[in-house]
Design a protein that fits this description.
31% of the residues lie in helices and 22% in strands. The chain has 610 residues and is α+β, with helices and mostly antiparallel strands. The chain has 2 domains: 5-207, Beta-galactosidase, Chain A, domain 5; 217-608, Alpha/alpha barrel (Glycosyltransferase). The strands form 7 sheets. It has a 15-stranded antiparallel beta sheet that branches. The chain has a 3-stranded antiparallel beta sheet with strand order 26-27-28.
Length: 610
């Protein structure tokens, strides 16, 4: 059985990520990419679906941490006879094959250790042929092979390989697992100690570029490292999470594959990177974004593969029982074919923010903006599936319309910069029509709040972004009232839910049975909205309570379920860590010139219209 979601740490090489449990087991690893088949899939099944555990043989207690500001995980095991440290990391590839390295280091005394490895390709379904090598083993099946190099003798039994060994103070025992296509005869195996030092140097150098030195520095840096770990280095794409099908509702069906790149994350990701000094990563993400959406605007998807792939066909791995019996286990994501109007606003906003922040111009950017806005001109008044990717009927979601307003607002500003007065005038005229419609049909005087969709009475946390994107100023009475209503009626056990559910825990809008936890990004949005409106003490209180949900190594999943006091959803989740960074920077008043917002912040029209 897999560990609790909050008991997992990660190591990664900016092309894939391994999840390591607090008991020393690697229960999830996809190679060679984030979205490749898993060779360790115990996370969604059990050890028979692939795992690799290294831990003391007898009773022991463990504490763990990352080595400084790195992605090198250190687990210290204390036993009755001594102490040993397990050091886990994945070195940046630099053209090499991907490797997961685990070094067992004696700290004091002697410790009896055990290692057990089960490689299973194809998400835990494919049992490989395994044979012994002079140092370690090789597992091979079809196109895949994995080589485990170690000086320790591994003995095969019950379709697994086991080792028992002793480490004393100052001694190091390395294990290096390398993946490569099966037609390649043998990988190179660099010295594990030298590779560890090179990896440490890489992360120390990367973190040294961070410009934030405020109160929440350690938390922000850990979130930035996590964001970097979720970046596919060859293309600059950033996946939403490292896992698939970790449930939003334990035992339920709300299990999705998040190993893809969402356009919705574009602007806030750019903002987080630009405000902390990572302009190279921001530029790489901007270039990935432009390449991914190139072509017919009618074909723009809400998400893409790490290299910009469009076909993300959803299917079910029915041989896996799912995390704590949360089935089905989904591979791919059918939501990629949905129409979500807000992503057009996110893309144009991201391109506008990059230009405003001084990123080198791309000759295709202006042409892309024109094409996107031509499409939005024709379709901004259409219903869509909305921010939450509902699998129910399309509606006129308020957040979607607000983001259509963002598209025209930012586009008009870019047209001014290009001396295209005709387009600037037309897009501002449409922008104003969208604004008036949202204020008339998206605000409920009865509830005293902007609602989820036109004509609804239901609430939606997404409308908290209205002041952040500049649609209305934070002091506008409708915004102030909306924030207050959401705090009063959508907060559960101190955390903000995405939208309202009925007494049975079900929402009519998303078309799915069951409930879910509190989506963490929503509570970060609430902290931002309170700070924008001059209520910083309240914002700080919410923000610091959210920080208390981070696990022992500073990671967050998608949601927190107050019913069980547990993190739920895919892990780690970029859409939790990015708004964490954003809120920390706002509360520290750091690098405000790189914040997203309206191109016409001084335009009083937005205060009085509607």
């Amino acid at each position: 059985m897999a560990s609790r979601i909050e008991d997992y740490a990660i190591v990664g090489d900016m092309q894939s990520v391994a999840l390591v449990s607090a008991d020393g087991s690697v229960d999830w690893l996809c190679l060679p990419r984030f979205d490749s088949d898993a060779c360790f899939a115990a996370l969604l099944g059990d050890e028979r679906n692939g795992s690799w555990r290294i831990a003391p043989a007898g009773r022991a207690t463990a504490t763990r941490q990352y080595a400084g500001d790195t992605l090198i995980l250190e687990t210290l095991w204390e036993t009755g006879t001594g102490a040993a440290r397990v050091i886990d990391f994945m070195p940046p590839r630099n053209g090499d094959h991907p490797s997961l390295i685990r070094i067992v280091e004696g700290v004091r005394g002697t410790v009896e250790m055990e290692a057990s490895v089960r490689v299973r390709f194809g998400y835990g379904k494919v049992l490989p042929w395994v044979y012994a090598l002079p140092r370690g083993i090789r597992a091979i099946a079809g196109p895949d092979s994995a080589w485990l190099d170690t000086p320790v003798k591994l003995n095969g039994t019950d379709f697994a390989h086991h080792a028992s060994f002793t480490v004393s103070g100052g001694q190091r025992v390395p294990f290096t697992l390398t993946y490569l296509p099966s037609h390649i005869s043998e990988p190179s195996c660099p010295d594990a100690g030298e590779t560890l030092e090179a990896t440490r140097k890489y992360w120390d150098g990367w973190v040294s570029r961070c410009t934030y030195r405020g109160k929440y520095r350690d938390t922000v840096v850990r979130s930035l490292i996590t964001l970097k770990a979720l970046t596919y280095q060859p293309t600059g794409g950033i996946v939403a999470a490292a896992t698939t099908s970790l449930p939003e509702d334990i035992g339920g069906v709300r299990n999705w594959d998040y190993r893809f790149c969402w356009l919705r994350d574009a602007t806030i990701t750019l903002e987080a990177l630009l405000r902390t000094g990572y302009t190279d990563e921001a530029a790489a993400w901007r270039h990935w974004l432009a390449r991914a959406v190139a072509g017919d605007p009618a074909d723009v998807q809400i998400m893409y593969g790490v290299a910009g792939e469009r076909r993300l066909t959803e299917w079910q791995a029915d041989w896996l029982p799912g995390y704590e019996a949360s089935a089905p286990v989904r591979i791919g994501n059918a939501a990629s074919g949905q129409f979500q109007l807000d992503v057009y606003g996110e893309v144009v906003d991201a391109l506008h923010l990059s230009a405003k922040s001084g990123l080198p111009p791309d000759r295709h950017t202006w042409a892309l903006v024109q094409r996107l806005l031509e499409f939005v001109e024709r379709h901004w008044d259409d219903p869509d599936e909305g921010l939450w990717e509902v699998r129910g009927p399309r509606r006129h979601f308020v957040h979607s319309k607000v983001m259509a307003w963002v598209a025209f607002d930012r586009g008009a500003d870019m047209a001014d910069a290009m001396n295209d007065a005709k387009r600037a005038s037309r897009w501002r005229e449409i922008r104003d029509r969208v604004h008036a419609q949202v204020c008339e049909q998206g605000y409920s005087a009865e509830r005293g709040a902007f609602v989820q969709y036109y004509g609804a009475t239901e609430l939606d946390a997404a409308v908290l972004l209205i002041p952040e994107v500049g649609f209305l100023p934070p002091e506008d009475p409708r915004v102030v009232s909306t924030v207050d209503v959401l705090r009063r009626e959508l907060v559960s056990d101190g955390f903000l839910r995405r939208y309202e559910v009925d007494a049975g825990g079900t929402s009519a809008v998303d078309g799915l049975p069951g409930s879910e936890g509190a989506f963490l990004a929503c509570s970060f949005w609430l902290a931002n909205a309170l700070d924008f409106s001059g209520r910083r003490p309240d914002a700080v209180a919410i923000f610091e309570r959210l920080l208390g949900l981070c696990n022992d190594v500073g990671l967050l999943s998608e949601e927190y379920d107050p019913r069980y006091g547990r993190l739920v959803g895919n892990m780690p989740q970029a859409f939790s860590h990015v708004p964490l960074i954003q809120a920390a920077l706002n509360l520290s008043d750091h690098a405000g010139e790189h914040r997203r917002g309206s191109a016409d912040l001084g335009d009083e029209r937005r205060i009085v219209s509607g």
